[in-house]
Amino acid sequence: MKIDFDGVQAFVAIAELGGFNKAARELHITQTALTRRLQKLEAYLGLRLLDRTTRRVELTAVGRDFLPQARAIVQDMTAAVERLKDMSQHARGNVTLACIPSMSAHLLPAVMRSYAQSHPDNRVRLLDGDSNEVRAAVLNGLAELGIAVLGEKHPELQETVLFSDPLAFICREPHPLQERKSVTWADMRGAELIGVSSATATRVFMDYQLAKRGIRLHGNYEVQHHATAINLVAAGVGSAILPSSTFREGDRPGLRKIALTDPPVRRKVVLLRLKRSSLSPAAQAFHDLLKATPLQP
């Protein structure tokens, strides 16, 4: 069933304002157009809602019974449209973002603070997961946006590179390499390394890049998350090779972050969205802010 909203709106305006002239001015249409809307509605219903004479307009019995319901329809629709208009103009609403955990250490909170300042009424829901889980969340509609490590292209995903994230050596003082401004991969061969799971996108990327250069490292320990590796380094268990964005110098007393060179290896962090879907105004605002914010570890 197709609801003739224009006709219902015309009927309510005529009934409330008491005439066609006032109702036409209220709706910013001609009296002829207003009459046609009402006639179309009455023809569809097969009922007269108004009795019209040259001097006055009166509701029929059916019209009096229908008016409260018609008024509610118009009010609800008007309120709904105004809410959508407000969402569009002020980017109001909620955003769900799927994100790799390493982004939540330092870089993402700064963006979220800026977003909260410009959109204080919006709610941001964060889904933590590895790069594969982030891609799945965006593809399945669980999140409008995703932040992941660059991987195999998917035909339904649009990927925008946000920044390049170099791998760095994290150690605890005292350490033989702590005074170095940079270290080489060859220096890592004798280090007691805490490795991140081989299932993570960063580890896959790192192993691939090193294998191309004939470099192979063996870690004594393996963990699932970057934060766990940092905790073990802080506890003196060993050292770690991690994305630079996961650790900021000064975060933990006694820990050092040293650049890795020969060769420098960088992972690319990308912003994901579905190609076929438009973003909500709130998500579009977050998307634009992410792209405009310089994100560097």
Low-confidence regions = none
How far apart, in Å, are the first and last alpha carbons?
57 Å
H-E order: HHHEEHEHEHEEEEHEHEEEH
Number of domains: 3
**Helix content class:** 40-55%
Specify Rg, calculated over alpha carbons. Answer: 31 Å
Which architecture of the largest domain per CATH? 3-Layer(aba) Sandwich
Q: Which CATH class of the largest domain is shown? A: Alpha Beta
Task: Note the main sheet.
Answer: 10 strands, mixed
Structural class computed from helices and strand pairing: alpha/beta
Number of strands: 12
CATH topology name of the largest domain: D-Maltodextrin-Binding Protein, domain 2
| Global outline | rod-shaped
Mean pLDDT: 85
Count of individual helical segments: 9
Strand content is: 15-25%
Domain HTH lysR-type: 3-60
Protein name: LysR family transcriptional regulator
InterPro entries: HTH-type_LysR_regulators, LysR_HTH_N, LysR_subst-bd, WH-like_DNA-bd_sf, WH_DNA-bd_sf
Organism: Azohydromonas lata
